[in-house]
Amino acid sequence: MDNDVNVITLLDEDGEEKEFNVITKLDIEDKEYVIVVPNEESEDDESEAMALRIDKDSEGNDVLVVVEDDDEFEVVNEAYETLFFEDETEE
To answer: CB count, 10 Å around CB of 53?
Structure first.
């Protein structure tokens, strides 16, 4: 996935397209991840960030997969917090 992607469109559980803002892209242990938040906020939606791993399908296309493994999620979460904590201390 290109580093300059700011918005992605994903299908939700109902098959409806939803736009997400890409907060950052992370490269961790030979894997790529993106942190995204919902683009449109409504009173019913919680705008929590989601961690998605970028995998490749059989044709070599990028496929986004929700990180469900607790250990993998913790590694991504720590990298995300470290990145943003370092950014705050530099200001």
So the answer is: 20
**Distance, C-alpha 9 to centroid of its chain:** 12
Other residues' Cβ atoms within 10 Å of the Cβ of residue 91:
4
CB count in 10 Å sphere of residue 56: 10
Least confident of 24-28, 46-50, 59-63: 46-50
User: Angle at Cα 29 formed by Cα 23 and Cα 35, nearest 5°?
Assistant: 15
Alpha carbon 76 to its chain centroid, in Å, reads: 10
Q: Where do the structural domains in the chain lie, given as residue ranges?
A: 7-90
Q: What is the mean pLDDT of residues 25-53?
A: 81
CA distance 81 to 31: 18
- % pLDDT > 70, the chain: 81
User: Is pLDDT of 3 > 80?
Assistant: no
